[in-house]
Amino acid sequence: MQEVILVKLGEIVLKGLNRRVFEDRLLKNIRRRIARAGNFDVYSSQSTVYIVPKDEDADIDEAEERVSKVFGIIGYTRACVCEKDFDDITEKSVDYLSGILSTASSFKVTAKRADKSFPMKSPDICRELGGVLLERFPNLHVDVNNPEITVTVEIRDTNAYVHAENIKGAGGLPVGSSGKAMLLLSGGIDSPVAGWMMAKRGVHIAAIHYVSPPYTSERAQLKVEQLCEKLTDYCGGIGFYCVPFTEI
Question: Taking burial as the number of CB atoms within 10 A of a residue's CB, which of 57, 121, 170, 219 is the most buried?
Fold first, then answer.
């Protein structure tokens, strides 16, 4: 059973003729961030980014954790890949979602039929799959207003995808899509928060820190370096410039 990560775009979908520039930047950022998790194919189609493991060594858990910190992503989910056949969708839905459905009490099914040539309409998919899940998991009941679990079926151009809840992403714009800036980084909380907020608006930042030994300690500089390392999880690679200031 193949599992992928489906990524939903944020503000990028509001862009006009330059939208492709933002999408390309996001794809580049995702590929760079998940490189250490293994070999993945990353591409976009129908306002969705697909992250597909290319071999068994690809760590989809680590890739998901890294994707959660990429700016430009409004939400993401792990999904099971199915054939565009209702029997295959039903069979894989039961197997893939058994862990969460067996411990839940209520659910509902939603369907998104991007491929209108699929023979079943969205209400039919929801009704038929919901009936199968109710039969297989007697602990469940349907709650369309406030379900504990929402099962989603997406019928797309080449495959169908089944997944549960969407997870909120970091939001904002892809880092590097709004130019560059220098961040005056101190040892307090204000400057790293400012850097995080700048990066969320697409700015690629570099950090500069002033040291004045012996009036400032080596420990203070180390603290700033550690703050900079924490920012890289969200901001990508950050150039760190440490300026001696004692003589001045």
Answer: 170
| Threshold 0.85, pTM exceeds | yes
For 85-106, the pLDDT digits (tens) are: 999 999 999 999 999 999 999 9
CA angle at 21 for the pair 17 and 24, rounded to the nearest 5°: 135
User: Helix (H, G, I), strand (E, B), or coil: what is residue 99?
Assistant: helix
Of residues 213, 190, 202, the one with CA closest to residue 236? 202
CA dist 233 → 18, 33, 44, 68, 217 (Å): 27, 8, 23, 10, 26
Residue pLDDT, tens place only, 137-187: 999 999 999 999 999 999 998 899 999 988 999 999 999 999 999 999 988
With H, G, I as helix, E, B as strand and everything else as coil, classify residue 59. Answer: coil
